[in-house]
Design brief:
By secondary structure, the chain is α+β, with helices and mostly antiparallel strands. The chain has 13 helices and five strands. It has a five-stranded mixed beta sheet. The radius of gyration is 42 Å and the shape is rod-shaped.
């Protein structure tokens, strides 16, 4: 059965209708059509031939078949097997045309049933053929309408599936783009910060290698530690991309607790920095803590890179029930923005704050120095973490 349906689906509609018409014609006239009167043969051809185009113009084809059937009634030819063309045409109208067309075709066919039953029905049993033929026509019309509704439903389901697949692909592409942007921000923060610290320490070691060898040795040790920390941060950030990576579980992402180590590292690199934490940090989720850490890290890195020696930085983080406020200031006498605005520095910081429904402002202070202020909404951070 499946093979037959598959072959049926491969046959062009016009070819299938032509084959159907030929089968009905052979069944109507028999294997020897030359034995039938020419007029009867022409009548049956007139009844069946329009069915070849039934899909292209269902109502027109039904009208042509009904016209041939009317001629049959007028000339007094009794019902023929080819009259089944009326039911085929009605089915096609019901399946492929609007319901008003179906109602019109059914009314025309019902009139033909009444006329045929009056003329050729059994004596005294007029209602028997009327009821039988009416029930048959009704069943054909309902079948066609049901199949039309089913086809429309399947089409809508297929369209919905295609639309959902397209939306899923778009969401996947957006997720990939967002993940790439996140990784780019992480790598920028890690590499820029640690390289800046390493350069500052290397300069200090070169300066102190003859005057204070001990301090030079300490600076070189700090460079080694900073490099290891950079490798750890990179492996940690990239390790979360793999479910089977145990390194990310052994080394959790940095947060509020690591701010003091960050401040100590900046002090060792030559940027005196103070840290003040206000409020309860317990309700701050891990994702928000990482954003706070990266914001402070980027701001201090910019201060280290773009301010003159002797600059002092202050970090203040205030926690409330719904927000986290970060403020980083320095007293460096520069009024230039720390880094190009087209890079990943300040734009990346704004993206981090905006990811949690927050804002970030960065600019020079009236009396000199630079200020970075950011606000993070904890409700958005909790939703993102969940």
């Amino acid at each position: 059965m499946c093979v037959l349906l598959r072959k049926r689906a491969q046959i062009p509609p016009v070819a299938f209708d032509a084959l159907l018409t030929a089968v009905i014609f052979v069944a109507s006239v028999g294997p020897w059509p030359e034995l039938q009167p020419p007029g009867l043969l022409v009548l049956q051809v007139a009844l069946l031939l329009p069915l070849v185009w039934r899909r292209r113009a269902p109502l027109v084809v039904f009208g042509a078949v009904a016209t041939a059937a009317s001629a049959q009634w007028l000339i007094g030819v009794q019902p023929l097997p080819a009259d089944v063309a009326l039911l085929v045409a009605l089915y096609t109208v019901a399946k492929r045309s609007p319901w008003p067309h179906t109602l019109l075709a059914a009314a025309v066919l019902e009139g033909g049933i009444l006329l045929a039953s009056i003329r050729w029905g059994p004596e005294g049993r007029f209602l028997v053929p009327v009821l039988f033929l009416t029930a048959l026509a009704t069943a054909v019309a309902i079948t066609g309408m049901h199949l039309k509704t089913r086809r429309a439903y399947l089409t809508s389901v297929e369209d919905r599936a295609v639309r959902l697949e397209r939306e899923r692909d778009q969401q996947a592409q957006l997720a990939v783009a967002e993940e790439r942007a996140r990784i780019a921000r992480e790598m920028h923060d890690i590499v820029t910060h640690n390289l800046s610290v390493m350069v500052a320490l290397a300069d200090a070691a070169v300066y102190a290698q003859f005057r204070s060898p001990g301090r030079a040795t300490g600076a070189m040790q700090q460079i080694s530690d900073t490099g290891r920390q950079a490798l750890t941060d990179m492996r940690r950030s990239l390790g979360v991309l793999r479910a089977d990576e145990p390194f990310a579980q052994r080394h959790p992402l940095p947060g509020i607790a690591q701010l003091q180590s960050l401040v100590d590292q900046m002090r060792a690199a030559g940027l005196p920095t103070s840290l003040a934490l206000e409020g309860d940090l317990a309700p701050v989720p891990t994702t928000a803590q990482l954003s706070v850490y990266r914001l402070v890290q980027e701001a201090l890195t910019n201060a280290l890179k773009h301010t003159p020696p002797g600059t002092r930085a202050d970090v203040r983080v205030r926690f409330s029930a719904k927000t986290v406020t970060i403020e980083i200031t320095d007293d460096g006498r520069t009024t230039q923005a720390p880094g190009p605005t087209t890079g990943h520095g300040i734009p990346g910081m704004r993206e981090r704050a905006a990811a949690y429904g927050g804002t970030l402002q960065a600019g020079p202070l009236p009396d000199g120095g630079w200020r970075v202020s950011a606000h993070i909404t904890l409700a958005d951070a909790e939703d993102d973490a969940s």
